[in-house]
Structures are given as structure tokens and as C-alpha cells.
Design brief:
Blueprint (H helix, E strand, L loop, with lengths): L4 H22 L2 E2 H8 L3 H13 L3 E5 L2 E4 L1 H11 L9 H4 L2 H6 L5 H12 L8 H9 L28 E17 L3 E18 L2 E2 L5 E5 L17 E3 L8 H28 L5 E5 L12 H24 L2 E7 L5 H10 L8 H8 L23 E8 L2 E8 L4 H15 E2 L9 E2 H50 L1
Parallel strand pairs: 4-9, 9-10
Antiparallel strand pairs: 1-3, 2-3, 4-5, 5-6, 5-7, 5-8, 10-12, 11-12, 13-14
Length: 481
């Protein structure tokens, strides 16, 4: 009896995690090691390895050896680095463009088509199903999905960006560990945030009339006001060694949020009269954790307090706060569509599903998520998805009055200001947001470059001093004895 797609999907997820464990131990994956760990026959394992290779989960090295896709793992670990026991899934590796490739009449399509059929995802390429999803009336009958349809009938409108400001902000952090022989380890997180208040003239960003603010500012700022101070790095410590890595990553994320919020508050306060929307890279308030550590709780409380200050100053200036997320892992919209239309397909994230349904400029209906664990309950918090060219973006916002009017404003401005991302590690979006991401990352790396040499030199000097003192003491004790 042939396996159902759900059995196949679960088996692939198990094998992906087993590949991860094997590679961690041996540095590579091969059929015999995977067969031994999984308990499956060598023939079955080779069949699954071929599927994982075609899906881009594995890369072939040589001599029957494989490894997990390096680029994909870098992206996945960056997303999940704050979750201590995250289990990898096929969905982590399935990218929207991978599914789109299966439509092309190429050798790549031939390799992927077998796997797509096994997951029953081939039905998403059916034009009639796509048309049904777009045109069906739901009239508010689906939980979380507002309005009469899943997909709104009117796409984004390109509007002229002339004599107007569209700001963007982003933050970055980098954790580095410095070792002093076997004596000690210093773990440091480097932080930066950047905001770019981009001025558009005839659809082009005018850098001369735009404002860039980066914190902390490590360049001589004399004569340039206002200046926003910020701590460039923190030493991270914990009393619980068993949670040291997890705790450091949590602390780094919250510290990064704090710096980001402080910068956002200052930008909206100083320039909020010049723009109508303010776009942040990432969620307005990332999914939270319930901490059991006093210091982490204190940091989280500070972050939450700053979030509310940002909301308050935005309301005072009548600025619409927008969070832009790329490569999200939610599937709330997918589950709603699967249940409503009784689609028997494997689990995919919203961006994977919508990459096959939405056309350029189209958006989903508004989604109202409600209260979430670890995140403050904010009235009038909405989100929606939009496709621009080949990318799916999730946009969340805190509505001012009519959320549908705010949504249209966000949709048209972001669609009109959209720029192709210049590097894979950046979010696509408005040009001002991309500039902010680049500057935040650059500043973080520059602080680390300057500081790391000083730290290493200080560590070596300190260690040599301790060793010399110890040798002198031993010599003294020996001679005096």
C-alpha cells in the first residue's frame, strides 16, 4: 500500500534531523550512517537521499557523502538561534522560488516533480484551484481572516513618490566568544541599529536630503547633532552554565530590540512630522518568551516599556507603525485555506503557499491574530501578505482608525518604493529599509573589528601577567623553603 503524503512528510522531517545529528558528529552524511540511525533499509535510504538532494536539503560532496545545504542551514540557524530545542522540518528548506522552479520545463523540474507529487503539492499548480481560492466568498466566516475574501480583488497601485519621505529602520547583533587559553572565555554581543529617513524625488532616493542615523555612532560626531548615545557591546554572563548559550542568544535579541526601539522613538520624535508611515525590519514586537531568569525578565520589561513608548509617540505624531517580515514561518493562512477548501496537501508555510497563488501586487485579506504568548496585547494590530515581483512579504501594523484604509496606504507605498535586495542576507523592501539594514550590519561588524583586537591583546597581556606572577611565586617559595 503506497504511503500517504503525510507519512512521507513526517519521514522526511525525521531524516532531516537525523542528518543534522550525523553531520554534527561525523562532519558528513552517508547512506550507511543514516540507515543505521533511522533503522531503514539501505535501498529506502538511498531513495530518500535522492529526494532530499533534489529538494536542496542536502548537497553531494563526493564518494557517497552528503552534507546539509550550507546556505540553507546558515539561514535556518539564524532564524531559530533563539530556540533551544528546535526540530528542523522540510518546511525550513522549502523556499517559494524552489516551488516555482517546478513549473519550468527544465531538468530541475523533472527532479522536483516526483517529490512535489509525493507531498501532494502539485494541486497548487492547478489554475482552477488558484482561481477558486481567489474568487470564493468567505464573508467573515473564517477565524482570524477578516473581510469577504481570502485574496483581495484590487492589487497594489504604483503611485509617484515625489517630494516625500519614507523611513526604514533595522537592527543587528553579533555574538563573539574570546578564549584565554584554558583560563576563561569572554562572551560579547555587539549591537547596532540604523534608521534611514529616505527622501524621494521623482521616484528616486535623494541621499543629500535623506537622513541616516546609526547607533552607537563610533565616528567622531562633534558638530553633528542630535547625537543618540548607545552601548556598542555587552559582556554576557550567567549563573547557570547549562543555559549559557541559550541565555546569551535571548539576551542578545532583547538587547537588540531595546536599541532598535530607542532609535525608532528618537526618529519618530524628531522627524515624525515629515512622514506618514514608519517601516521597521522585522516584527513590531517579536514573538516573546516567558523567561525564568531575573536579568532576562528585567531586559524584557525594558523592551516592552520602550515598545509602548514607540506606540505612544507614533500615535501623537499620527504615524502608522509597520513591521516588514521576510521568510516567515507562520502557516495560519495556509491552514485556513486548507480547512475551507478541504485541500489535502502537506504542511507548507504561508509564503510558500501564497507564492503560488498571488500575482504581483496582490494581497491577502487582513489577518487579526489576537493575543499571543510573550507579547503584549495591542488593540488594532493587523497583518497581511503581499507579493511584489517574486517575493512574499508579511506586513503588520497598528491601525489608526480604519484598518482597511491603512492597509491600502501601506500596500501602495511599499509596492511603489520596493527595491530588489542587493544581497541574500537582506530583507527585500523599500530602498530606505535596505539602506538601514546595510548600515546596521556594517556598524556591528566595524565595532567588532575594532574591539576584538583590543580584547585579544588585553587577554594575552593579562594571561602573561598571571603566568609571570605564578612563576615568581613558585620560584620564591622554592628558594625561601
Amino acid at each position: 500500500m503506497p504511503k500517504t503524503y503525510s507519512t512521507y512528510y513526517v519521514r522526511l522531517n525525521d531524516l532531516i534531523n537525523q542528518c543534522f545529528q550525523i553531520q554534527t558528529e561525523y562532519g558528513y552524511v552517508d547512506a550507511s550512517l543514516l540507515s543505521e540511525k533511522s533503522g531503514l533499509s539501505d535501498r529506502l535510504i538511498r531513495d530518500y537521499l535522492k529526494d532530499l538532494l533534489n529538494l536542496g536539503v542536502l548537497e553531494y560532496v563526493s564518494g557517497g557523502k552528503y552534507r546539509l545545504n550550507k546556505e540553507a542551514m546558515t539561514r535556518i540557524l539564524k532564524i531559530y538561534e533563539i530556540e533551544p530545542y528546535k526540530q528542523l522540518t522540510l518546511e525550513d528548506f522549502l523556499r517559494p522560488n524552489l516551488l516555482r522552479l517546478s513549473e519550468a520545463p527544465t531538468a530541475i523540474r523533472d527532479k522536483l516533480s516526483r517529490v512535489i507529487r509525493k507531498l501532494n503539492l502539485n494541486i497548487l499548480f492547478d489554475k482552477e484551484i488558484k482561481r477558486t481560492i481567489k474568487n470564493s466568498r468567505i464573508n467573515g466566516s473564517v477565524k482570524y481572516i477578516l473581510g469577504g475574501r481570502f485574496i483581495l480583488p484590487r492589487p497594489a497601485t504604483r503611485i509617484p513618490l515625489n517630494d516625500m519621505y519614507i523611513p526604514g529602520s533595522a537592527s543587528a547583533y553579533l555574538i563573539k566568544n574570546y578564549g584565554l587559553e584554558n583560563y576563561a572565555v569572554l562572551s560579547t554581543v555587539y549591537l547596532s541599529a540604523a534608521a534611514y529617513v529616505g527622501y524621494y524625488w521623482r521616484d528616486i532616493l535623494d541621499n543629500k536630503k535623506s537622513t541616516l542615523r546609526v547607533v552607537p555612532d563610533i565616528i567622531n560626531y562633534s558638530g553633528r547633532e542630535p547625537y543618540v548615545p548607545g552601548d556598542p557591546f555587552y559582556e554576557l554572563t550567567t549563573e547557570f552554565p547549562e543555559v549559557i548559550d541559550f541565555g546569551r542568544k535571548l539576551a542578545a535579541r532583547v538587547l537588540s530590540q531595546i536599541m532598535h526601539y530607542r532609535l525608532d522613538i528618537s526618529i519618530i520624535k524628531d522627524f515624525g512630522d515629515k512622514f506618514e508611515i514608519y517601516i521597521r525590519s522585522g516584527s513590531l514586537y517579536p514573538h516573546g518568551f516567558v523567561f525564568q531568569a531575573r536579568k532576562l525578565n528585567e531586559l524584557q520589561e525594558e523592551s516592552t516599556e520602550l515598545f509602548w513608548k514607540m506606540v505612544k509617540i507614533a500615535r501623537k505624531k499620527n504615524v502608522l507603525l509597520v513591521g516588514l517580515t521576510y521568510r516567515m514561518h507562520d502557516n495560519i493562512f495556509t491552514r485556513a485555506i486548507k480547512d475551507f477548501f478541504s485541500l489535502d496537501i502537506a504542511e507548507v508555510s504561508d509564503d510558500n503557499l501564497l507564492s503560488l497563488i498571488l500575482d504581483d501586487g496582490e494581497t491577502t485579506a487582513l489577518i487579526e491574530r489576537g493575543r499571543e504568548k510573550g507579547r503584549p496585547e495591542v488593540p488594532n494590530w493587523y497583518e497581511f501578505y503581499m507579493k511584489i515581483r517574486q517575493e512574499i512579504l508579511k506586513l503588520e501594523f497598528i491601525a489608526r482608525d480604519n484598518p482597511w484604509d491603512d492597509m491600502e496606504l501601506i500596500r501602495d507605498l511599499i509596492y511603489s518604493a520596493y527595491s530588489t535586495r542587493p544581497a541574500k542576507n537582506l530583507y527585500p523592501g523599500p530602498g530606505s529599509l535596505i539602506v538601514a539594514q546595510i548600515e546596521a550590519a556594517r556598524n556591528t561588524e566595524e565595532i567588532e573589528r575594532i574591539t576584538s583586537g583590543i580584547v585579544r591583546t588585553a587577554f594575552i597581556d593579562y594571561y602573561n601577567k598571571l603566568r609571570k606572577e605564578r612563576e615568581e611565586k613558585l620560584k620564591r617559595d622554592a628558594l625561601e623553603g
